[in-house]
Amino acid sequence: MWLHLNFNFGFNSSFVSKSLKKLPLTVAGLAFIAGINTVNANQDGLGPKITIPESSGESCILPSAEMRRQHPDLLKHDRIQTLREGVRAKADGGKLDGSLKQCVNCHAIKDASSKFVRIDNDQHFCVSCHKYAAVSIDCFQCHRDIPEGDGEFHALTNHKGINYSNIVPGTSSLTIKDMANIAPEVISDDN
Amino acid sequence: MKKLHFLEVEGNTKGFFTFLGLFGLISLIGILSAYYMEHNGHWVTGMNNQIIWGTPHVFAIFLIVAASGALNIASISSVFSKTAYKPLSRLSGIMAISLLSGGLVVLLLDLGRPDRLIVAMTQFNLVSIFTWNILLYTGFMGIVGVYLWTMMDRPYNKLTKKAGMAAFIWRLILTTGTGSIFGFLVAREAYDSALLAPMFIIMSFSFGLAFFLLFLMGSYKYTQRELGDYIVSRLKNLLGVFVAAVLYFVLVYHLTNLYSADHRDITVFILTGGGIYTFLFWVVQIALGSLVPLFLLYGPTGKNRAMIALAAALIILGGMAQLYVIIIGGQAFPMSLFPGMEVSSSFYDGVIASYAPSLPEILLGLGGVGVTLLLMTVAIAALKFMPASLADEVADPHSK
Amino acid sequence: MTINIENEKKGAMTTTNVESSRRNFIFGSVAAAGLTVAPGMMLYQTANARSQSEKATSKVRWGMLVDTTKDVDWNKCVDACNNEHGLGNEHKSRDDQKTQYIRVVDVKNKGTGYSISLPVMCQHCEKPPCVDVCPTGASMKRPDGIVLVDRHRCIGCRYCMMACPYKARSFVHEVLSDQKENTPRGKGCVESCNMCVNRIDNGQEPACVEASDGAIIFGDLNNPESPISKILAKHGGKQIRADLKLNPGVHYQGI
Question: Do C52 and A144 count as a contact with CB atoms less than 8 A apart?
Answer without folding.
Answer: no
